Amino acid sequence: MTDIEVTPNGPYAVHGLPLIRLTLSPDPEPRLQEWVERESVDVSGEADGAGTYWLCRCGGSENKPFCDGHHRSIGFDGTESAATQDYRTRARVLPSADGVVRDVPDLCEHATFCTTPDTHVWRMVHSTDPQVRQAMASMIDHCPSGRLTRAPDEHAADTELALPLRVAVVDDGPYLVTGMAVVTRADGAPCEVRNRVTLCRCGASSNKPFCDGSHAKVGFHDS
Fold first, then answer.
1. Distance (Å, rounded) from C-alpha 47 to C-alpha 108?
2. Is 185 helix (H, G, I), strand (E, B) or coil?
3. What is the rounded distance in angstroms from the CA atom of residue 83 to the CA atom of residue 212?
4. 23: Cβ–Cβ under 8 A, 6 or more apart, which residues?
5. What is d(CA 16, CA 202) in angstroms, rounded to the nearest whole number?
6. How far is CA 165 from its chain centroid?
7. What span, in angstroms and rounded, lies between the C-alpha atoms of 211 and 106?
8. How far apart are CA 189 and CA 209, in angstroms?
9. How far is CA 162 from CA 28, 87, 103, 170, 195, in A?
10. If we measure between CA atoms, which residue out of 4, 147, 159 comes closest to residue 83?
């Protein structure tokens, strides 16, 4: 069963998933930041009898995060442009002391968990220092878009946190979808089922339906 359906040039139809709001903790050290759950969002007033509700993806709704039909008035073009190959096929594999790190840059939403003022994952991957490796693992695990993953070896399953099946509205950012939600594209191409993905909601991504960080460039705000 599809959990999230991308509608043609329109909103995301979400079938029965819980909806929450997330913000980042204010710690100035990116690797020490955490997602903080602000509140659950009551969808009862927006859902139909089957529990389906519609989330804006054009960025223009005045009832964010819900769709208010604004996509029609602005002629929103929501055509998907993201690659349809699976993550591992596309990933660059980086050997590390603890196994491998995989990287698919197109999926980046620029949450900056992968960097610190002094270093970054692509440098840390070469370290044999246990503390550095532990810090790197935490940084990878916090990557919301799943651009970065880690595994014990090149053939093993990814090491993933246990994440709830839900949709999270990130302040002034994308929808963070976790828990192996099934996302169906409007063009009929399948989306790989993954533990964490970020879906565009500003309407400006060049990697639709996924976020590419354009919300920061266009000054998207959801207040």
1. 31
2. coil
3. 13
4. 35, 36, 38, 170, 171
5. 23
6. 13
7. 9
8. 11
9. 26, 19, 20, 19, 8
10. 147
Closest CA to 211 of 166, 163, 147: 147
* The residue to which tokens 């909601």 are assigned: 201
Two structure tokens written together for 111: 């949450």
Type of residue found at 55: L
Instruction: Report d(CA 77, CA 7) in Å as an integer.
Output: 11
- pLDDT digits (tens), the chain, 223 positions: 789 999 999 999 999 999 999 988 776 665 567 888 889 999 999 999 899 999 999 999 999 999 999 999 999 999 999 999 999 999 999 999 999 999 999 999 998 889 888 899 999 999 999 999 999 999 999 999 999 999 999 999 999 999 999 999 999 999 999 999 999 999 988 899 999 999 999 999 999 999 999 999 999 998 6
Measured between alpha carbons, how far apart are the two ends of the chain, in Å? 32
Q: How far is CA 35 from CA 18, 138, 166, 171, in A?
A: 17, 13, 14, 11
